[in-house]
Structure to design on (381 residues):
């Protein structure tokens, strides 16, 4: 029998409706929660006299499977392999007859470029740059690749996209996105990364809607030696976020990462809930250490295989959830790896990490130059 992979979803499909805010499950009634002092919108659970104890599960440490030894460029290369293969075939196809650069050639080039989901804007910019530089001439592959790379680099220019760490006290990271985007898996990858840096990590199982979500995160927490704070099924996710943040301050942890339930960017009540979780995390930080603000990062996980749909997700989430950066998950599963380009262009949000597989080490910091080099690797020869 195949080994169970806690990363693999088994209980619902991405199409399944997202949870309704504050709706308790009938199976397991919500535990009383202890919202912070100012968190008192009408719909919230009333504060009990004493805070309910959070369920804290201490880790039973298991060794992390040995990371596959791959260079940084190699990671990008393998994540983008499907995209590179398609680009490679298509571009060689239009270049092979020693054609001159004319309108027909430029239209074909444009059509091939947008197949990568880089979007009409960037594909058109490359088309125009080739037209300006090479119209009426024979174009060599090397010139095409260099022009495309320069154009994309220009579009994607971004500041060094490190995780924004707290000046003092724990760094609080909140992770948001649509159902099935790869949030929980990406959290496991973040834990792996922080652990490799020697940092202590506490997780907040803020997807209280699905018992399986808590189970999935708990297994990874145990495997990687992170503490996890959970709430009762159906309980207020903001309460779990509060307790996890508070625990991180009390224990002097380096990082606390809060998982959240998947939701659609069109579900305004659920998007509002993210805002509330954000405020409550801030309240927890401030009450533990006056003047502190949190979260330091709100990472939006986008599924690269969703292509253009990932762009509308970014649009819906980026403002409603105060996102500070993007994790582009599942880049390994798509031939449309160009999608990082319009995401960067349209939202100005840095792509901070890419996901390139289901294991904790299948993760890399995003780097524009490496991305652009890998996207056209081997094509100019
Ligand atoms: N190939 C590949 N699969 C991934 C990657 N990231 C996540 N997955 C898979 O995508 C599926 C969904 O991942 P989850 O992490 O459970 O997604 P989620 O956003 O937490 O889902 P919900 O909590 O239901 O909203 C799982 O089968 C993961 O193994 C990735 O970078 N590459
Ligand atoms: Mg999840």
């Amino acid at each position: 029998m195949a080994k169970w992979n806690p990363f693999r979803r088994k209980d619902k499909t991405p199409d399944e409706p997202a949870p309704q805010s504050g709706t308790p499950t009938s199976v397991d009634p919500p535990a009383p929660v202890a919202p912070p002092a100012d968190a008192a919108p009408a719909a919230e659970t009333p504060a009990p006299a004493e805070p309910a104890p959070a369920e804290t599960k201490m880790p039973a440490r298991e060794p992390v499977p040995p990371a596959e030894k791959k260079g940084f460029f190699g990671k990008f290369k393998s994540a983008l392999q499907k995209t590179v293969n398609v680009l490679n075939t298509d571009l060689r196809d239009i270049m092979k007859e020693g054609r001159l650069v004319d309108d027909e050639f430029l239209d074909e080039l444009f059509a091939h470029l947008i197949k990568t989901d880089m979007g009409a804007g960037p594909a058109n910019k490359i088309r125009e740059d080739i037209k300006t530089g090479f119209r009426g001439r024979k174009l060599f592959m090397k010139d095409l690749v260099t022009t495309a790379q320069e154009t994309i680099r220009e579009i994607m220019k971004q500041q060094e996209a490190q995780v924004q760490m707290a000046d003092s006290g724990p760094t609080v990271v909140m992770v948001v996105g649509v159902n099935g985007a790869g949030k929980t898996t990406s959290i496991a990858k973040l834990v792996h990364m922080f652990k490799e840096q020697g940092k202590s990590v506490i997780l907040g199982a803020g997807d209280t809607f699905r018992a399986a979500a808590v189970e999935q995160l708990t297994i990874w927490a145990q495997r990687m030696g992170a503490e996890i704070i959970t709430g009762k099924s159906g309980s207020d996710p903001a309460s779990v976020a509060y307790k996890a943040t508070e625990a991180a301050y009390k224990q002097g942890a380096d990082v606390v990462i809060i998982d959240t339930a998947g939701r659609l960017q069109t579900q305004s009540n659920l998007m509002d809930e993210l805002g509330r979780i954000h405020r409550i995390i801030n309240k927890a930080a401030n009450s533990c250490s006056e003047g502190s603000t949190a979260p330091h990062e709100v990472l939006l996980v986008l599924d690269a295989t969703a292509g253009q749909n990932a762009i509308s997700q970014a649009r819906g989430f980026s403002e409603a959830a105060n996102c500070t950066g993007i994790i582009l998950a599942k880049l390994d599963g798509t031939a449309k790896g160009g999608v990082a380009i319009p995401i960067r262009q349209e939202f100005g949000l840095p792509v901070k990490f890419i996901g390139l597989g289901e294991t904790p080490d299948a993760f890399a910091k995003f780097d524009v130059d490496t991305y652009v080099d890998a996207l056209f690797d081997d094509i100019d020869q």
